[in-house]
Amino acid sequence: MNITIVTVGKLKEKYLKQGIDEYLKRLTAYAKVDIIELPDEKAPETLSDVEMLQIKEKEGERILSKINPDAHVIALAIEGKMKTSEELADTIEKLGTYGKSKVAFIIGGSLGLSAAVMKRADEALSFSKMTFPHQLMRLILVEQVYRAFRIMRGEPYHK
Known about the structure:
This protein is an alpha/beta fold. It has helices at 14-27, 49-65, 85-97, 115-120, 134-152, and strands spanning 2-8, 32-38, 72-82, 102-107, 123-126. One of its GO terms (cellular component) is cytoplasm.
């Protein structure tokens, strides 16, 4: 299986990079995982609704340019469906079973995802009703993908 994580914004914190690198190393036994990091749009602290929309659209265009046309796209969005780790594992397993070996997870910038990205997404996934920094979300996502493969293989994992 080929998993791509398309994410907006640079990862600056060393401790997050170390955690992500650790899970990426563990994931090599299960899947090929690539992280595509896209620059975020620079924006002033206060934005009008029009400016927010323009920024999301520019970031959205960058995101869409990196998605493989054959990929099953899962957008991380607060309004998405919440799943248990077992349900995420089941989703990934079914995608592989039915010939969808390319999966793209999308993490937007601080303003969220554009309407065009949400339209391209095959599903929207929410990890919580809470808002997380997108850098931290990257670590949480790679851990959950790793956990999903452990669950699919019947291997032990922390509950």
